[in-house]
Write a structure and sequence with these properties.
The structure holds 3 protein chains of 3 kinds. By secondary structure, chain A is of the alpha+beta class. Chain A has a single domain, classed as Alpha-Beta Plaits (2-Layer Sandwich), CATH 3.30.70. Chain A is 16% helix and 22% strand. Chain A has 3 helices and 5 strands. The longest helix of chain A has 5 residues. Chain B is an alpha/beta fold. Chain B folds into 2 domains: 249 residues, Thiamin diphosphate (ThDP)-binding fold, Pyr/PP domains (Rossmann fold, 3-Layer(aba) Sandwich); 133 residues, Rossmann fold (3-Layer(aba) Sandwich), CATH 3.40.50. In chain B, helix 13 links the parallel strand 15 and strand 16. Chain C has a single domain, classed as Rossmann fold (3-Layer(aba) Sandwich), CATH 3.40.50. Chain C is an alpha/beta fold. In chain C, strand 6, helix 8 and strand 7 form a beta-alpha-beta unit. The chains are: A alpha+beta, B alpha/beta, C alpha/beta. Chains in contact: A-B, A-C, B-C. At the B-C interface, strand 3, helix 3, helix 5 and strand 9 of B face strand 2, strand 3, helix 4 and helix 6 of C. Strand 1 of chain A pairs parallel with strand 2 of chain C, so a sheet runs across the interface.
């Protein structure tokens, strides 16, 4: 194996989900979307630091709870308060 | 591998060491040079600037604000996929120290010339090897020239060694400050066409390039497991071992190209029938050879092992040459505080207990040591060994008396 | 050149410029800023990142959360390394952006010499100083851009020094493009990046990035705090583009002192200012006025 090959995965990294871990487990609160209130403006998608909100083709919103850290920015920026931060329940 | 290499057309010129290095940079068609002045290297970057202005070399010339930036910039250029070069000395080398390690462990190839110089205080622009030796742990391949011709040859071959895919480590070429950097000697210079046929352009794919729109790779984020870092160190070691063979191959080719054949890592002068071996590196090796000549006339069976490349450490060469010797005397134009000479300490581990050994510290601060003084020191060592049996002198300070 | 709209940005609705699952703190402003930068550049750029939060945010090898080519470099070196990379890639015929994404520590302090060098050489790089106003990655120590009176671990009674105005220092380097921006004004930031891309040479954007743990603030308030910074006049959005310096439209209303929201609204969100006295707040207000005065006069000079 040449030097270049040996460097891959050690010195050189490639993009992947969860490179910082299963960050959904960090959450204490989870964002819950009230779809009847949601105006599909996309602001929550725009400001999500973790990129876990999808603003789909039809402009509806989907949250990836595998990685959502529950920071609450989406709820704070939502202009119609369609997102509630709900305490995570331990089952 | 290159096909049949034929002897190049060469032109004889008389140049100071710094200018000879600049000629090599030009012939290697370096793409990016960063320039920051420091005595006694400044002539290198000045000459390169003139060459670019005259259209002899097409390259980006970056007038950086410090040596730290000088190395950072050529490191960046190497990561960007082109051939890069810079030059420095003593304090400047120390100012780029952090970047030196980062660059070597990034495994990108490029070349730097170090015109060796004393480190202050007090301020001193004269020659000493201590500065170059401080980078010996960093992962850089380190060569030291004895003559202006060799400074030229080592700079030119450095690109080929560095860029070899079994090596991929940066190369530092040392030349004695003022003694070589500012001293004119004749040298033979191959033509651009002949160098082009032997030295192809840098291949940006080896080992990798970070470029906008390129492969989405990241260099350098934290490893998930510390073991990765240990593996990287081991791979660096393997590359250093590979470098021994690659250096030999490159000089073999270069010998066919120029007619100049060097012992790749070391050269041993009159060693085949020597019972005592002196060891040195750099320009003063020539003066020591003068001393050896006189001692031979007096019947002393002594030779000189000249180290050309200190990294990778030429362990095999050293073991082979000192095998059967009665005594080894090492000349250090450097001092590692609290220990002694660096070369002496690196070599002493290979000296059997029944072999005489002396580490001489001299020429420090840049004072001259004449062939006759070398002769006296070596003679004293050999005489003492012959009288008393094996002696071990870790630090023999040779400092002449100062007049009034 | 048209202004960016949410309709246009919708095309990035499911695009992950940064892969989810990073090591960033919840509510991290750097994440928001980098996503906005990537949208502005359509994901086609390379980054040089000196030591800082962004060295750690992308997670661990063999993986990274960043989806563009990235070179991690020593703390003080990013402008110099970027100078080398950009020269190399331009020689090889690549005209795409080389971006330095650096924090305030790397830019205003340890990398200041290299920053000055790259700026005065007018290197063709886009330099984003993502300013969270302290050395956050090492645990909240005061930097050259930490505001006066702020608590940090190295200024527990409140910082006595003021801030270095790095953007104005860049202006004095005579570079073609300098701007301030805020993560809470993404359209303004994205438009600025795009206008910067129309210019060749050294382009500097000072991006305000309020940090919840560092400022002792609820992690939901990152955008709220960023907005209040502009609405109270504490953060002035301006742009200098090849000879002309203008106040950016989100900051225009706050030229008028009377229209600025009370500074207290901004300060009370942040635990790092909880020890402030009335005199302290008056001093801060006076400094805000002085800064507005300075920037407004510069708009007159650079007409």
């Amino acid at each position: 194996m040449g030097v270049a090959e040996k460097l891959k995965g050690l010195l050189l990294s490639t993009p992947a989900e969860g490179a910082g871990g299963r960050t959904g487990t960090w959450r204490v609160y989870r964002p819950v979307i009230n779809y009847s209130k949601c105006t599909k403006c996309g602001l929550c998608w725009l400001y999500c630091p973790e990129n876990v909100i999808d603003w789909l083709e039809d402009k509806s919103i989907r949250v990836n709870y595998d990685y959502c850290k529950g920071c609450g920015i989406c709820a704070d920026v939502c202009p119609v308060k369609a997102i509630d931060m709900v305490k995570e329940v331990v089952v | 591998m290159t096909s049949q290499i034929s002897l190049a057309k060469q032109v004889r010129r008389v140049l100071v060491g710094d200018h000879a290095v600049a000629e090599a940079v030009k012939l290697a068609r370096v793409n990016v040079i960063s320039a920051y002045p420091i005595t006694p290297q400044t002539l290198i970057v000045e000459r390169i600037s003139e060459m670019i202005d005259r259209g002899e070399l097409k390259a980006d010339y970056i007038r950086v604000e410090s040596e730290f930036a000088a190395l950072a910039a050529v490191y960046g250029a190497a990561v960007g996929g082109v051939r890069a070069f810079t030059a420095t000395s003593s304090h400047g080398l120390f100012y780029m120290y952090e970047m030196l390690w980062w660059a070597a462990a990034s495994r990108v190839p490029f070349v730097m010339a170090v015109a060796t110089r004393v480190v202050g205080p007090p301020w001193n622009i004269r020659n000493e090897h201590s500065d170059l030796l401080t980078i010996r742990d960093s992962g850089w391949i380190i060569g030291m020239a004895q003559s202006v011709q060799e400074a030229f040859d080592m700079t030119l071959t450095a690109f080929k060694i560095s860029e070899n895919e079994k090596v991929l480590l940066p190369v530092a070429i040392g030349l004695d400050g003022f003694i070589l950097s500012h001293t004119a000697e004749p040298l033979d210079i191959p033509s651009q066409e002949d160098v082009d046929s032997w030295l192809p352009p840098r291949n940006p794919r080896i080992p990798y390039t970070i470029e906008p729109g390129g492969e989405p790779i990241t260099m350098g984020n934290m490893p998930k497991n510390e073991v990765y870092h240990a593996l990287l160190k081991k791979y660096m070691d393997e590359s250093m071992e590979n470098a021994k063979k690659v250096i030999a191959e490159v000089y073999d080719e270069y010998g066919k190209l120029t007619g100049r054949n060097y012992g790749p890592l070391t050269e041993c002068y009159r060693c085949s029938d020597a019972r005592y071996i002196a060891v040195s590196m750099g320009a003063w090796s020539g003066d020591i050879m003068g001393a050896i000549e006189r001692l031979r006339d007096e019947g002393y069976p002594v030779g000189l092992l000249r180290i050309r490349y200190l990294r990778p450490f030429p362990e095999e060469d050293i073991i082979a040459w000192i095998n059967g010797a009665k005594g080894v005397i090492v000349f250090d134009r450097d001092y590692s505080a609290g220990l002694g000479g660096v070369l002496a300490s690196e070599i002493s581990g290979f000296i059997p207990s029944n072999v005489s050994f002396e580490g001489v510290l001299t020429g420090l601060g840049g004072f001259d040591v004449s062939p006759d003084e070398f002769r006296g020191i070596i003679k004293e060592f050999i005489d003492k060994t012959e009288r008393e049996g094996p002696i071990k002198i870790r630090k023999y300070w040779y400092i002449p008396k100062v007049e009034g | 050149m048209g202004m960016v709209t949410m309709t246009e940005l919708h095309k990035y609705g499911t695009r992950k410029f940064i892969m989810p699952g990073t090591a960033a703190c919840p509510g991290c402003p750097l994440q928001i800023g980098m996503r906005e930068l990537a949208m502005a550049l359509d994901g086609k750029f390379a980054m040089v990142i000196p030591a800082g939060c962004s060295s750690v945010i992308p997670g661990m090898a063999p993986y990274t959360a960043y989806t563009v080519p990235v070179l991690h470099v020593p703390f003080a070196s990013s402008p110099a390394v970027a100078s080398g990379i950009v020269r190399a890639v331009r020689q090889r015929g690549n005209e795409d952006p080389v971006v330095v994404w650096a924090g305030d520590g790397a830019t205003a302090d340890i990398g200041f010499a290299a920053l000055s060098g790259a700026a005065y050489r007018n290197e063709d790089i886009l330099y984003i100083m993502a300013d969270n106003e302290a050395y956050m990655n090492t645990g909240i120590q005061a930097s050259g851009t930490t505001p006066s009176k702020a608590w940090t671990t190295t200024s527990p009674k409140g910082k006595t020094e003021g801030r270095k105005d790095v953007a104005l220092i860049m202006l004095m380097h005579k570079v073609p493009y300098v701007a301030t921006a805020s993560i809470a004004y993404p359209m303004d930031f994205i438009d600025k990046v795009r206008r910067a891309m129309q210019v060749k040479g050294f382009r500097f954007i000072h991006l305000h990035a309020p940090c919840p743990p560092g400022w002792k603030m609820d992690d939901a308030y990152t955008i709220r705090a960023s907005r209040l910074a502009v609405e109270t006049g504490m953060w002035i959005l301006w742009e200098y583009n090849q000879g002309k310096l203008t106040i950016s439209s989100p900051s225009v209303p706050y030229k008028d002192k009377g229209r600025r929201k009370p500074i207290e609204e901004y300060l009370k969100l942040q635990g790092r200012f909880s020890h402030l006295t009335k005199e302290d707040v008056e001093e801060i207000k006076a400094n805000v006025d002085k800064q507005w005065d300075l920037v407004l006069r510069l708009t007159e000079i650079y007409k």
